# Entry
Amino acid sequence: MKRPYNFSAGPAAIPEEVLTLAASEMLDWHGSGMSVMEMSHRGKEFTSIYAQAHTDIRELLAIPDNFKVLFMQGGGLGENAIVPLNLSRASTVDFVVTGSWSQKSQQEARKYCSVNIAASNEAQGYTTRPAPASWRLSSQPSYVHICSNETIHGVEFHQLPDLKAMGCDAPLVIDFSSHVASRSVDWSRVGLAFGGAQKNLGPAGMTLVVVREDLLGHALPVCPSAFDYRLVADNQSMYNTPPTYAIYLAGLVFQWLKRQGGVAAMEARNIAKAELLYQAIDSSQLYVNKVAQDCRSRMNVPFFLRDESRNEAFLSGANANGLLQLKGHKSVGGMRASIYNAMPIAGVQALVDYMREFERTQS
Ligand SMILES: *Cc1c(COP(=O)(O)O)cnc(C)c1O
# Structure
C-alpha cells in the first residue's frame, strides 16, 4: 500500500526506507538482542551508532575541523535560551527579525542579555528579508542571530550574510532548524548553527548544534551544566544521557542522505521541487504566495486561496487524495506545504495536480 504524502512542517515526514529499516531493527539491533532504546549510551553498541552519525553529519554538511558537533536536547526553543546563556557574555546581542522564529528567539534572549533589533521586516508582514546593507548592527555585539529559514512565514536566506564584510567581527548564529541538510552551508560565515531534528533530520528529541571551538567556554554562571556547550563538547554529547533513539534514527536518515548523493544532490532536487510548486501557485487565479520572489523558502511554502471560504473543501479534498497536513500555521492561516528532503518530487507533482484540479472544478 502506498503511503500518503505528508506535508507537515514538523514533526515531518521521514523517508519510508528509514522507517522500514528502523522497524526491522526495533526488537534486535544487529544481533545485540536489544532495541536501540534499551541500550546504555556508554556501551559499545550505542557508541558505534553515535560515532557513525557524528561522522556522517560532519561529512554531509562539510563541517570544518574547528567546529564541534553536539547532539543535544531542548529543541530550537531550548536553544533560544542556551545560545545566549553560552555566547552572550551578558552583553549586547543583535537580532535580525524575519518571521515568527527569529521573533521568538529575540524575546527569549532578553532574559539573559540586552537585545538590539538590527533589522526587522515585521512591518512588511514578514514577506521580505531586510538587505544586510540596511542592518543597524551594534558596535560590538556578542553575536548576531538570524533564522536562516522561517518555517512559518516561508522566508529563507539563500545566502548567509558576510558579517566581516559588513565590518562586524561578531560570530553569526543561525537557526537552521527547517532547512538543515537541504542546501550547503558556508561555514566561513557562521559561528554557531542549531536546529531541532524534527523538520529535516529525523524525529523530535534531538537538537543539532554546530559550534566553532573558540566560542566554547564562555557560559554564564547560571547556565545549566547540561546545556554548557563546553561540557557537552568535552563529553562527546554524553555529559548526560543523550536522546539515544532520536540520534539512531537521525543516523539512519544521514545514511539515506548519503545514498541519495548527499546535500548537493538534495539541493538540486529541492530547487526543482520548489520551482514546480511556486510556478503552479503563481500561474493560478486561485492560489497566492505573498513572499517576495527572491526571499521565498524552498522548504516551507505558505499559500492562500483567494476565496478563503474554500479552505475546508481544499483540505478535505487533499486528505482524500493522500495529501496530508497542508493546513497553514494558526498565526498565518491559509495553507502551507513543507517540502523537506523526504518529500519526493512525485509528492509535489501530486499536490500540484490536485491544486489544478481543485481550481478547475471547485472554485
Ligand atoms: C520548529 C522550529 C523551532 C522550534 O523547535 P522546537 O523543537 O519546537 O523547540 C525553532 N526554530 C525554527 C526555525 C523552527 O522551524
